[in-house]
Amino acid sequence: MNGQELIKRIGLTAEYVKALSAQKGEPVWMRDMRLAAFDWLSHDASIQTVSGDAIDYSTLSLESLQLYTPSSATKTPCSQACAAPCSGSAVQHDSDMICAAIGESLRERGVIFASMDDALIGYPDLVKTYFGTIVAHTSNIWAALNSALWSGGLFIYVPEGVVIDEPLSAHFFIHQHRMGQFERTLCIVEPHARALYHEGCSVSVAQSFALHAAVVEVIVREHAYFRYTTLQRWGSDMATLVTKRARLDAHASIDWIDANFGSGLLVKYPTVELAGVGARARMVSFARICGSQRYDIGSGVVHSASETHSSMVSRVIACDNSSVMVRSRIRLLPHVTHAQAYSTCDTLIESQNACSSAKPVLQANSQTNILSHEARVRSYDDTILLYCMSRGFSEFDARYYVSRGFAHDFLSLLPPDIALECEGLLS
Known about the structure:
Blueprint: H1 3-10, H2 14-24, H3 28-43, E1 88-93, E2 96-102, H4 104-108, E3 112-115, H5 116-122, H6 124-130, H7 141-149, E4 154-158, E5 168-174, E6 180-181, E7 184-189, E8 194-203, E9 210-212, E10 215-220, E11 225-233, E12 238-241, E13 243-248, E14 253-261, E15 265-268, E16 271-274, E17 280-289, E18 294-303, E19 309-318, E20 323-332, E21 340-349, E22 355-363, E23 370-379, H8 382-390, H9 395-406, H10 408-411, H11 416-426
Parallel strand pairs: 1-5, 4-7, 5-8, 6-9, 7-10, 8-11, 9-12, 10-13, 11-14, 12-15, 13-16, 14-17, 15-18, 16-18, 17-19, 18-20, 19-21, 20-22, 21-23
Antiparallel strand pairs: 1-2, 3-4
Helix pairs in contact: 1-3, 2-3, 3-7, 5-6, 8-9
């Protein structure tokens, strides 16, 4: 599906894009960025998608989507859901961020934690400097759709030298039927700063088809650290087609921890560019899929500088008639030397009809670099299940504990509250 077909099916026009920008009171340059994305969709958008491969989207029920739905909840600087945060917290309902609150001590140190809409009005020059520099609207058709229709999301700015030990957090809800949610999140961590960000996504009611096409841009400066943790619990009728990318300068580091449950179709391929010498990235993802869900997931790292290091670990549990493609892409530019990159994907198959595939792509030239990839698919070991059942466990409980053991390394990386929620979802 190309851009022209996409905008035709959802009924998007240039007039709608202009009206949305005017309704939000945006500066002219943001309106022009939205229109540039729409123009690219109208004329130049190719079939390239988030993962880089052609995926059949013809079965998606894109007609009559609600492209912008203001939240029915009261918008307030600090509602009960965000009251007295120890660091910072935010809540988005449908298309609007209804609250974003930050601790007074962080505000005094120059930390900005605001909805993207509010940041665009309150800090226009700062937003203009970074918006769209990591994820351009030409990245893929879903990034272009987000660039034209974005609403909500977060703007996080951590000044130089500021250390935030308690996590900033946000939760994104979808309440309306046939909703299209297009939040945009931009995180900037200045040199020698440190920040943790936890993100959750869920639906509040049983859904008809809904579309989630978010964009996340992360910039980590020299000697800074950023930890991005996300838990997505969408409905089975949800199509999640997101674009998430980060760029790291010299000696910066990032931990990208990603858990996924529930979406009927999930295409997610977070990518990090190690642009500075000594930059490091750790990408860890976990997913459990069942029913007839289709997941096209993985991660990628581009080594643009020497002496950089990356590791990518993916774990998937697949059951029923589900199918998953796990991608890992490691690219080392020709001038890069003494870099290290490691990738592994591991799938646990729960039923005979589930399907798992791995597609690694490794590109390197210098003999001083070290690259490795491994993939493994396994099923439940009947011997282990029988042993557990002989000790009084039901078959259901035995399978749960095997799954929990498979996910243990991933769960150990999560904050206790998120790990506990993931353990519940495994059952």
